[in-house]
Amino acid sequence: MIKFIEYPKCSTCKKAKNYLDELKIDYLDIDIKLNNPSKEEIRQYYLKSGLDIKKLFNTSGLLYKELDLKNKLDAMTLEEKLDILASNGMLIKRPILVLDNQVFFGFKQEDWQKVLK
């Protein structure tokens, strides 16, 4: 089952959800604010995504800015970055589309289209 992890008030998440609905794709809808992924889940998503760990952060979020993560991430270890991502779902770039072998952070329709069609 595909997991769609979102923040329901996020406009990008709404667009992504509409896209999945248009394609009539079944998915498990998870509110990231109510059900923040665990450190181990984030580790698995990170490994399946193939992205640099920094790409998993919601850099436009208020909490990211309040914690001054822009200036702190480079000095942090992978474990510290995973810990902070697991501490609050609002720090994670979303939506997150979790497939069997692949994970997407953020919504780029052209990328999603390649694996969903």
Task: Give an overview in words.
The chain has helices at residues 11-22, 39-49, 62-66, 69-72, 78-87, 109-116, and strands at 2-6, 27-31, 96-98, 103-105. The chain is an alpha+beta fold. It has one domain (2-116): Glutaredoxin, CATH 3.40.30.10. A 4-stranded mixed beta sheet has the order 2-1-3-4. Strand 3 (96-98) and strand 4 (103-105) form a beta hairpin. Helix 2 (39-49) packs across helix 5 (78-87). It is globular.
Question: Could you give the topology of this structure?
Answer:
Elements lengths: L1 E5 L4 H12 L4 E5 L7 H11 L12 H5 L2 H4 L5 H10 L8 E3 L4 E3 L3 H8 L1
Parallel strand pairs: 1-2
Antiparallel strand pairs: 1-3, 3-4
Helix pairs in contact: 2-5
Count of structural domains:
1
Mind telling me the C-alpha Rg? 14 Å
Q: Give the overall form.
A: globular
Structural class: alpha+beta
Per CATH, the class reads Alpha Beta
DSSP, total strands: 4
As for the CATH topology, it is Glutaredoxin
Classify the helix fraction into a percent range: 40-55%
In the predicted model, the low-confidence regions spanning at least 5 consecutive residues are: none
Strand line-up in the sheet with most strands: 2-1-3-4
Main beta sheet: strand number and arrangement? 4 strands, mixed
How would you spell out the order of helices and strands?
Answer: EHEHHHHEEH
